[in-house]
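Title: Comparing notes on inverse folding

I've been comparing how different people in this forum approach sequence design from structure. To keep things fair, I'm posting one structure and asking everyone to reply with a full sequence. Here's the target:
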């Protein structure tokens, strides 16, 4: 369920990554090629990006399908950035959360997305609730599992944990509390990307020009795309990429 991607590279229109490629994230909202769970990603979408000189990202999110929003098409055509994170949300049950449930979630300089599902939600999260300060729980943007996962990760980040430790620690805790969960997490601060492959697909593409793309699935047929093994932590910036077992 859901599709997401993060990009670090030279300054370019947002649409060069999310809309223009033949199998871009916009197309993945109705015709994903490698999605294992769910069939259509129409319950919201979002994109976050960084402007030069400002460490805090901007966001654009909506509750409906991305293909029905002409403003999004205009935005990604003209706005340029060196870093972005975007996501489309799988069709789910009725909810009053609206666009608040759509990634990316944010705190300080971070953008975050969760591709997957927490089994037994919300009861399975009860043992983990004490790991998050009460104020942070009260400030949850939405009542969905992804917002709670972000609360766990954000608490670790804001307490000073490195992004690799924040994601890995959250995934291990969530997997123990809710076995069988799918926990593909994606995080960026505009300078680095950290991600987990846990129960769903994750791919990466690196190339000349100090560019790296991490995505649920390839957005074109470039042979340089490589799949990340399941239960793996990915860490990358514009010049290096590493994989380690979770």
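Reply #1:
Here's my take.
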């Amino acid at each position: 369920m859901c599709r997401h991607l993060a990009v670090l590279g030279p300054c370019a229109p947002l649409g060069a990554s999310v809309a223009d490629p033949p199998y871009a994230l916009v197309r993945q909202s109705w015709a994903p090629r490698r999605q294992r769970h769910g069939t259509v990603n129409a319950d919201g979408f979002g994109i976050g990006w960084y402007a030069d000189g400002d460490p805090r990202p901007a966001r654009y999110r909506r509750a409906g399908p991305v293909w029905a929003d002409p403003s999004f098409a205009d935005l990604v055509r003209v706005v340029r950035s060196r870093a972005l994170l975007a996501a489309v949300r799988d069709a789910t049950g009725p909810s009053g959360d609206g666009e608040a449930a759509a990634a990316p979630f944010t705190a300080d300089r971070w953008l975050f997305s969760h591709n997957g599902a927490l089994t037994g939600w919300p009861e399975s999260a009860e043992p983990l609730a004490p790991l998050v300060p009460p104020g942070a729980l009260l400030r949850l943007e939405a009542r969905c599992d992804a917002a709670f996962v972000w609360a766990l990760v954000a608490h670790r980040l804001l307490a000073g944990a490195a992004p690799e430790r924040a994601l890995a620690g959250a995934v291990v805790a969530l997997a123990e509390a809710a076995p069988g969960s799918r926990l593909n997490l994606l995080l960026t601060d505009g300078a680095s990307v950290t991600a987990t492959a846990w129960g769903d697909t994750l791919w990466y593409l690196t190339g000349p020009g100090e560019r790296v793309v991490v995505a649920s699935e390839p957005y074109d047929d470039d042979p340089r795309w490589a799949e990340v093994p399941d239960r793996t932590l990915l860490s990358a910036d514009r010049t290096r990429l590493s994989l380690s077992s979770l």
